[in-house]
Amino acid sequence: MLRAALEQCAALGMVAARSPVLDTAPIGAARRRFANAALVIESELSPPALIAACKRMERAFGRRPGQRWGDRVLDCDIVLWSGGRFAAPGLVIPHPAFAGRHFVLAPACAIAPGWRDPVSGLTLAQHHARLTRRRPLPRGARLPLHSSARVGP
Q1: Can you list the domains of the chain with their CATH numbers?
Q2: What is the chain's pLDDT, residue by residue, as a tens digit (153 residues)?
Q3: DSSP-assigned beta bridge partners for residue 23
Q4: HSE of 124, CA atoms in CB hemisphere, 13 A
Q5: pTM for the whole thing?
Q6: Is residue 130 annotated as part of the catalytic site, yes or no?
Q7: Which of 18, 38, 40, 70 has the most CB within a 10 Å radius?
């Protein structure tokens, strides 16, 4: 389904780059895994016209209104735009939550690691590194005991 949707995106403009499809865990109420990918599209469409076309495509692929973050057939978003920031009812670019989402950053980094977030000035690769870096445990934190661990003498 995702591969077919990616092919349909050619109707929106020239697909300049396409990431590999990544299998990712759900967030929120969803119960199944998701396939995620990113595209760089060179389009003459304005951001509102582009998102409207994306929403029409979602419906054509069977998406129906439902629970936020629930299982869905297709979900298309505009994460970044070459014009920098954009805000209109129903659309904010850059996407407000993109920097905290591995399923967005991993495929985006595969095709545009040097693309800069106009808000923070960080590249996609830098956002991804911040999200995925190992962090030390807070001072005094204890590791969970495993069921095979003995407690006491």
Answers
A1: 2-96 (3.30.70.560)
A2: 777 888 888 899 999 999 999 888 777 776 778 888 999 999 999 999 999 998 888 888 787 766 555 556 778 889 999 999 999 998 999 999 999 999 899 999 999 999 999 999 999 999 999 988 876 767 776 655 554 444 444
A3: 35
A4: 22
A5: 0.76
A6: no
A7: 38
